[in-house]
Amino acid sequence: CFVIIFLIMYIFSIFLMGVIMEHHQDGGYSNENSEVTSVLEENFGGLGRSMVTLFLMITGGLDWGAVLNPLTDVSLIYSVVACTYIFVMQFGVLNVIVGAFCATAAHIASKDRDAVVRREMDQVMTLTTRIKTFFKEADVDNSNTLSWEEFKRHLGRKEVKAYFHSMDLDVSQAHTLFKLLDTDQSNEVTVEEFLDGCMRLKGPARNIDMNILIAAQRKMIRQIRHVVNEVQELGDLSRSIANDHYAFNSGGGPDSPINSRGPHRISS
């Protein structure tokens, strides 16, 4: 991209340097044209100056009018060439270069995402290997399950405690941790339960975990309220039946004054 910019600037610089020669042939070095001559010499007095002028014209470092007006005094063709250069560079070459930079940046960002995914997968694989190693070391009877005694005995080692702390797993309440790992409540933890439990419990509580807990509590509260309402309705129905039965046994019948006064509470 930079080579293309350099070549375009080089070609237009050589062409615009001809304005000095044409101005000299037209007698432009007279005193009355000294101001135009000085501007042309400053902007196009050599290949290096011409390229710097063209670079400043497309980067905002130089006003276009300050360059185009002296060129117009010499010949309109040079002004048209300068405008063509600005149009090609601004709307063509520079936009293509910006697009290329954006595409390259997007490609690098995509590689970064892939690298993050691979690094995360490597960390998970390493953690899985370490957890399985811990399980094998704790499973002294090779039963592919961990009992509470085996878990407690192995957890008493300092290096094991340090490893669990590195995973942000609180081992101060070992029996509670064992119960959390024992998802099927069989008093034995299989390698799958142990692996899934450690991966699930490691680290601090996250926002999603707290929201899941809050949602579960709300659901439980709604269920409890429903049960309470059902029990209250059942109690009201039982009291109504008891009052009707009491009124009937008292000889009032369904239309008796006792029954017409509504249900009565049975005194204990």
Quick structural summary:
This protein has 268 residues and is mainly alpha-helical. It contains twelve helices and two strands, in the order ααααααβαααβααα.
Structure description:
The chain has about 270 residues and is an all-alpha fold. Helix content is about 75%, strand content about 0%. The protein is built from 12 helices and 2 strands, in the order H-H-H-H-H-H-E-H-H-H-E-H-H-H. It has helices at about 1-15, 20-25, 35-45, 45-60, 65-75, 75-140, 150-155, 160-165, 175-180, 190-200, 205-250, 255-260; strands at about 145, 190. A two-stranded antiparallel ribbon has the order 1-2. Helix 1 crosses helix 4 (about 45-60), helix 1 (about 1-15) packs antiparallel against helix 6 (about 75-140) and helix 6 (about 75-140) crosses helix 10. The radius of gyration is 45 Å and the shape is elongated.
Which features characterize this protein?
268 residues; mainly alpha; two-stranded antiparallel ribbon; 12 helices; elongated; disordered C terminus
How are the secondary structure elements laid out?
Layout: H1 2-16, H2 18-25, H3 34-44, H4 47-59, H5 64-74, H6 76-138, E1 145-147, H7 148-155, H8 158-166, H9 174-181, E2 188-190, H10 191-201, H11 207-249, H12 257-260
Antiparallel strand pairs: 1-2
Helix pairs in contact: 1-4, 1-6, 3-5, 5-6, 6-10
Q: Biggest β-sheet, characterized?
A: 2 strands, antiparallel
- The order of strands across the largest sheet is 1-2
Beta-strand content: under 5%
State mean pLDDT (0 to 100 scale).
76
Class by SSE composition? mainly alpha
Helix content: over 70%
Helical stretch count?
A: 12
Low-confidence sequence ranges = 253-268
**Number of beta strands:** 2
Secondary-structure element series: HHHHHHEHHHEHHH
| Quaternary | single chain
Shape: elongated
State the separation between the terminal residues, measured CA to CA.
99 Å
